[in-house]
């Protein structure tokens, strides 16, 4: 179905799926690794909850493991495009909007 025939809220190029699954995030420049939760995923990006805020423009490698023995289920290069602080949330005070730049092997 073309975007012309979709309802207003459905005009994304990719459908967003709620996943709530563990994700590993590694800074491309420093190799620092963080564990977080991927809250939603689409063909163009993802929303990741982390305990650490990372600046917009930061390049990352992200890995989502499969619970069925396929490791990793997703391994991609991504860039932080949006940061939303969650004051009052001690465990995961930050939501990061990530754009997937490339799928890695």
Describe the structure.
The chain has no helices and six strands. It is mostly beta strands. It has a single domain, classed as predicted glycosyltransferase like domains (Thrombin, subunit H, Beta Barrel), CATH 2.40.10.220. Strands 1-2-3-6-5-4 form a six-stranded antiparallel beta barrel. The chain starts with 16 loop residues before the first strand and ends with a strand. The relative contact order is 0.21. The model has no long low-confidence stretch (mean pLDDT 83).
Keywords:
105 residues; 0% helix; 6-stranded antiparallel β-barrel; mainly beta; Thrombin, subunit H
Summarize the structure.
By secondary structure, the protein is an all-beta fold.
Q: Under the CATH scheme, which class?
A: Mainly Beta
How would you write the strand order of the largest sheet? Answer: 1-2-3-6-5-4
Instruction: Tell me the number of helical segments per DSSP (H or I, 4 or more residues long).
Output: 0
> What is the name of the CATH architecture?
Beta Barrel
Beta content? over 45%
Write down the overall mean pLDDT: 83
Report the order of strands and helices: EEEEEE
CATH superfamily: predicted glycosyltransferase like domains
| Helix share, percent | under 10%
Low-confidence segments, ≥5 residues, pLDDT <50?
none
Instruction: Count the E strands.
Output: 6
Kindly identify the CATH topology: Thrombin, subunit H
- Cα-atom radius of gyration: 14 Å
**What shape does the CA trace take?**
globular
How many domains? The number is 1
Distance between the termini: 31 Å
Largest sheet at a glance? 6 strands, antiparallel, barrel
Structural class: mainly beta
